Amino acid sequence: MTETTRTAGVLTTGRPLDDGRPSAGPALELDREGPAAALLRESPRALAASPGADLWATLLERPDEGATERPVLAQWLGADAPATPSHYHPASERFEVVSGTLTVDVAGERRRLGPGESVTVEAGVEHAFRNETDGIVAFRAELPSMRTVASLYTTWGLDAEAAVGEGEADGQPAPLDALALAADAYPDTVTTVAPAALQRVLWATVGRAARALGGGIDDRYLDDAFWERRVEQPAGAGEPESQDE
After folding, report:
1. 203: pLDDT confidence band, cut at 50, 70 and 90?
2. Residue 214: inside a domain, yes or no?
């Protein structure tokens, strides 16, 4: 596990790794004593990142490993993070802001949530969220299912691989991958970028071909070892932190 950089009270981590060393790319920079850094310390799992989307995340809880009924995901959105596509779920989803300001669109209504504020999006209600500020927004999200989590992690994993490979880390899966992921995530997550009937036709044709080529949700992206090889990890409790020269 790589060590976090420490500079004047700033925790810097989450950069793409190239041969085990942080490479050029977005870094998660947090006030070491602030709530966004405290949220990072809560997680027993590896830090994931989507360099092209200026996004970092870690799974705080999963239902098959504890008393929680829903997976709980911590996320940090940078200033350049794109808005999520509008979508809905067959179960409710809850957002709780820890630091910064999160904009959540719920059924066409725009809401801006500050620290300590939360919103529950009911089942079947269309929504999207984004960071409209110049800083980091940190929040917890109680998601509908592990399938939803796995689809997100697959998207981020593909982007993390592109960041130090031959692809382009732009935060978005290739069109065929996007179709296969949308088909695999359905009905736990339903995007509304196109009519549902049209999406089902695409999933049954082009999406099926994409999955045959290895596309779709890939559970290996849920493995901590994957992220520890590709993303700079924060130092654990009791571990030394490197000092900038």
Report:
1. low
2. yes
